[in-house]
Design a protein that fits this description.
Length: about 375
């Protein structure tokens, strides 16, 4: 049976690109995604969907599979797109836990519809069938309140409930209020869910976000997705458990914006070169540090500095690095000089050639600036 799925307007307006977000078992989509959606409002029209019997979702009374659930979500999204005047259009997707599993199912069953996906705290297979069936039986007998103590342990990284009692309380209240039979039916759908053998079919860009403190779907589960799909990448978040959108909204919103925007060819070309030259670790740190103050600036340098200038054919990358090193010494931008020295090595300059470039700057830029540049180079070249 394909359940009828209820949409929830979370943030933004229809003038912006649509982003569909999905919940975790036991949570309402609002409780899980509200903080992240608020940060995404300037960039996306954020639409959530509810699991049957959770939040505003109508209860389910018949068995359904994960494929059925994904079909219900797609039908729900199609109603929203029709209201936006984009009948059967494409959409970006983000989902946590079972919401992430639905995302994988959508990527498999409707591959032309999902432009990019961010999957957090999930897996191509989650848990074991026996565990899910046992939990379904317990909930049918004792209600969803029976899961509060266990979910408190499973869901959150240490210290989260003390730091964010209101947000954590809203999540636990949504679990208590969920319809028991609907919860049990989702458990049974998860018991039968396993798409590990089909990951290589997925061609759309996928960002897998892991929580270092996530026990139900540990980082290895997200790595399996990132490695298994054709175009995947993994980011692990420290001090995050199983509900990253609630536990780390700033990091998750920034990663979503960067990943979804990267589906734009100009931005994607710039991000590709930026990662090749500066390295994934540096770019991931810069991306995680994006705020509403510097978001447009980061988009500018990725799109134009890296996507327009660094991709031009007139100079090889090693030659561009010579120009950049000279300019940074001349401008006394020694903090950037440090990572561009590493980039110069990546781009093919030798240690000896870098020393020659800095010697040249001592004559044409000045000895004091070159003196500081050599101090930076001494540290970098001897790492």
């Amino acid at each position: 049976m394909t359940p009828r799925i209820t949409p929830v307007e979370l943030a933004g307006d229809p003038s912006k690109p649509i982003l569909v977000v999905g919940p975790s078992l036991g949570t309402s989509v609002t409780a899980l995604w509200d903080a992240t959606a608020e940060l995404l409002a300037d960039s996306f029209h954020v639409i959530g969907w509810e699991l049957p019997g959770h939040g505003h979702g109508a209860p389910a009374g018949e068995v359904f599979s994960m494929a059925d659930l994904a079909a219900g979500v797609l039908a729900c999204v199609d109603r929203v797109l029709a209201d936006r005047g984009e009948r059967h259009g494409t959409f970006a997707y983000a989902g946590d836990s079972v919401g992430g599993a639905v995302g994988l199912q959508l990527l498999l069953d409707a591959p032309t519809r999902v432009s990019a996906a961010v999957l957090t705290n999930t897996g191509a297979k989650i848990g074991e069938p026996e565990g899910w069936n046992d939990r379904a039986a317990t909930v049918r007998k004792a209600g969803t309140a029976s899961q509060i103590a266990g979910s408190t342990q499973r869901w959150f990284a240490p210290g989260f409930l003390e730091r964010e009692p209101a947000r954590g309380g809203a999540l636990l209240h949504s679990l208590r209020d969920a319809d028991a039979e609907s919860y049990a039916l989702v458990c049974e759908a998860l018991a039968a869910y396993d798409v590990r053998g089909r990951l290589a079919e997925i061609a759309a860009p996928v960002l897998a976000i892991a929580g270092v403190d996530d026990a139900p779907t540990p980082p290895a589960s997200l790595e399996e997705i990132a490695v298994g799909v054709r175009n995947g990448r993994l980011v692990s978040l420290d001090a995050v458990g199983h509900l990253a959108p609630a536990e780390a909204p700033h990091a998750v919103s920034t990663l979503i914006t960067s990943h979804v925007t990267a589906s734009d060819p100009g931005y994607a070309a710039g991000m590709n070169v930026r990662r090749q030259v500066l390295g994934d670790d540096h770019v991931d740190r810069a991306t995680a540090a994006i705020t509403d103050v510097n978001r447009d600036y980061q988009d500018l340098i990725t799109r134009y500095a890296w996507g327009t200038i660094w991709t031009r054919p007139g100079l090889a990358r090693r030659d561009r690095s010579i120009g950049v090193l000279t300019a940074l010494v001349a401008g006394r931008h020694f903090e950037e000089l440090e990572f561009h020295l590493r980039a110069a090595l990546t781009n093919g300059l030798t240690r000896e050639e870098i020393i020659e470039v800095l010697l040249q700057t001592s004559i044409y830029v000045g000895v004091p600036a070159a003196n500081t540049a050599f101090a930076v180079a001494n540290r970098v070249l001897n790492e």
